[in-house]
Amino acid sequence: MEPDPYDRRCGSRQVLDRIGDRWSVLVVLTLADGTKRYGDLARRVDGISQKMLTQTLRGLERDGLVTREVHASVPPRVDYTLTALGRSLLDLVSGLEAWATTHLAEVEAARDRYDTRMSGH
């Protein structure tokens, strides 16, 4: 059976959910320039809760996109790194980031027009 993300039973839909998730995109982009500690990720991704960062990292690790390395130190140090599979996402998520920042003003203007039009009804 060929992967079909339009079929709700297909695992490819779960993959799309993971890589299309806002937090996953931001974590992958943060790891693009190398290994980061948990605290570094938490500081960089503004607004992410500790619970959500932990869930995101676990999901990315489970899907083979991130590795987690625990160092025996006091306090314990945990490093996160993109795998080769995770790095293969960089062009895609960098493109999403570039599109969002390039077209932000246009999207905001469209929202304003929509909101103005809808408030008149």
UniProtKB/TrEMBL annotation:
It holds the Pfam family HxlR. Keywords: DNA-binding, Transcription, Transcription regulation. Residues 10-108 form the HTH hxlR-type domain. The keyword DNA-binding applies. InterPro entries: HTH_HxlR, WH-like_DNA-bd_sf, WH_DNA-bd_sf. This is Helix-turn-helix transcriptional regulator. It comes from Micromonospora globbae.
